[in-house]
Design goal:
The chain is an alpha/beta fold and 397 residues long. It folds into two domains: 145 residues, ATPase, nucleotide binding domain (Nucleotidyltransferase, domain 5, 2-Layer Sandwich), CATH 3.30.420.40; 185 residues, Nucleotidyltransferase, domain 5 (2-Layer Sandwich). 39% of the residues lie in helices and 19% in strands. The chain has 15 helices and 14 strands. Helix 1 crosses helix 3. The longest helix has 25 residues. The structure holds adenosine-5'-diphosphate. The site of adenosine-5'-diphosphate has 12 residues, from helix 10 and helix 12. Belongs to the acetokinase family. Its EC number is 2.7.2.1. Catalyzes the formation of acetyl phosphate from acetate and ATP. Can also catalyze the reverse reaction. Pathway: Metabolic intermediate biosynthesis; acetyl-CoA biosynthesis; acetyl-CoA from acetate: step 1/2.
Amino acid sequence: MNVLVVNCGSSSLKYQLINSETEKVLAKGLCERIGIDGRLVYQKSGLDKEISELDMPTHKQAIQFVLDALVNDKTGAIKELSEIDAVGHRVVHGGEKFSSSTLLTPEVLKAIEECNDLAPLHNPANLIGINACKELMPNTPMVGVFDTAFHQTMPEKAYLYGLPYKYYEKYKVRRYGFHGTSHSFVSKRTAEFLGLDINNSKIIVAHLGNGASVSAVLNGKSVDTSMGLTPLEGLVMGTRSGDIDPAIMEFIAKKENLSIEGVMNVLNKDSGIHGISGKSSDFRDIRAGAAEGDKRCQAAMDVFSYKVAKYIGSYVAAMNGVDAIAFTAGIGENVGKLRKSIMSYFDYLGVKMNDEVNLATMAEEALISTEDSKVKVCVIPTNEELAICRETVALVK
Ligand code: ADP
């Protein structure tokens, strides 16, 4: 079965065509600057990337270009569109309505729309992508895979905030968590990789990318995670502050004469390692800056890793122990020095790192603790597109 995986943002759209039997990517790419001018990046497996400037006033037009590229005589990955058996869409927020992936029926689309309030930047864009695909491929089954779904197993004590209960009742203000597709994929793979029985396991996943979150996965189910109502809570991220004293918002608003929107903009776009370093949100720049002796880059790295360590420590408590800790995503998969610094807080748990393997491991599965370490530590590359493909196949078959 060939599955087209679509991740649609407000002005961009990432896609992969995956053969579900071989799990090989047949073609992938993205559309950028939709509604502005338009650029299509297309790459058939084994060939070079093609970049074309194309007029993309709408998402429908962008998807049409993707479909044209996929069936192109010379570099297409398939002969005709009927070879796309299903489309899997990433949907950011499923609220409390969706605890698993689902076929996108008109009722489901309405329910997703009702979650728009909770993710005003993401869900409307996801819906635009879904509707555009439906128009262009009306007979192809479509599946929605939610970033929040995996965390719907969290107990009430983990998802309720210390706020008036009426806000939960009236507006569903609670912790939802994100990156669920990645936390689910990586925790399952960690159990397989280490030969653990997932139904009798305590795994902590540190998804450290530009957006970053940690989750506690007990017996295969998410029991806590660091992101909250929105992806702003939790770790210090590329440009997001993560947890702060909420009173800082009023304090900064008054001092800087900012509106709520202005403060939110600072917390989402000007904070995190970008804000602390004053240099960049890209971890590679921060690492290079720290290596050259830039104190604020060093501070950004230290704050980042300390916060990850504190979350991991709190999830050891939440699960009353831990069997394995898995690092994933751009930073988690590639920066051995950072993994070492995070794990240095866990000598007390009996963690023994294999420094040589840890420092040499980049973007590949590896056990980076010693074989006899009481808690196993590993790198497990995430693959959200493959996870969406698998979920889609499971529902369409
Ligand atoms: P997202 O999907 O949230 O945009 P990614 O998982 O792609 O994020 O991670 C992006 C982050 O990973 C960036 O901060 C980038 O600098 C960092 N990163 C990616 N590759 C490397 C690498 N080889 N070395 C250091 N940092 C890396």
